[in-house]
Predict the 3D structure of the following.
Amino acid sequence: MSEFQSKIKTIEWCKTKQGGYSIMVDQTKIPYAFEKVEIKTLDSMFDAIKTMIVRGAPAIGIAGAHGCALFALELLSKIVPIEDLWQDITPLNINENQRKEFFEELEKGFNYLNSSRPTAVNLSWAIGEQKKIVENSRTLDLKEVCANLINNAIRLENEDIEINKKIGDYGAAVVPKGAGILTHCNAGALATVGYGTALGVVRSAFAKDNTIQVYADETRPRGQGAKITTFELVKDNIPVTLITDGMCSYFMRNKMIDIVVVGADRIAANGDTANKIGTSTVAIAAKYYNIPFYVAAPKSTIDLSIESGNDIIIELRDEEEVTMVNGKRICAEGVKIINPSFDVTDNSLIAGIITEDGIFKPEELKYKLKVSA
Ligand code: MRU
């Protein structure tokens, strides 16, 4: 079994006597280096998400859950030194005002973290899961509140890999034998805790049929396809060809692509899907050439609270991502830049949404999908 399938967790809680901290692969360094960083405070988690040390919707979600637990520890340590969170059962001697303040600050910190990136709904979903823990822990000792938040973050972390394996298995069933699979951006092990969503489908398909071929879009401006998808697939010995974003219709017309599988950052109730900028261009070309276009995503990426893709907030990022390559300006001074990080693929272009519960047509999400409240 490969390194990515068995050993590497993109983001992981490291438990210590004082509660612990988050440890994650620094994705800004790939493919030049494979390094992990320790994140110990709410502010550094906010920055890690914003600067894309951690990226990819499911991984951002887990980062959010970790960040909530880190902040609870930070607040607790301002009240009392934490010597042994797991063994020390001495009740904390604090007054009602201190408790009230702890919970008020906690909520502010959670909301602040939620503002680090706007498009991937997994972030607010995971913070929402942590808010539920807080609600159910209101009468408990604050050390227990922290322990519950940590344990919940670890639960979400472990479930993510299981979910991705299910997505992989459902998706592999629709991959034709010997298929050319086109993917955009990185929806792999590194965009999740492990295994990946779109690349989870690739991994499961490859385990059954080692004649499949992957075509990875470069994914300008940040190059997640070139830098991260090819890195993962080469490490797993899965055949991958890197193409630039404008090349997809060449490969489609020449019958080298049989199926497209991409990830998602937010899927609206009608199946409209926000994913990395350039995804909808691929979907439009796939429709023209009659190539099925699938979205692979956990249920936590589905936002039934919004009717359509028109309600999805698209993150606008720094213009230097477009104007600069490897620290060098690649365009004339004075040119106007707009840098939307995601686009919305219309539901009519999507053959199916591959989830851990099976594959749904976009119009089925509203009626058939069971999501927890
Ligand atoms: O800006 P990024 O790199 O976080 O964008 C990532 C994507 O668009 C992925 O395709 C999506 O989050 C799905 S990851 C399983």
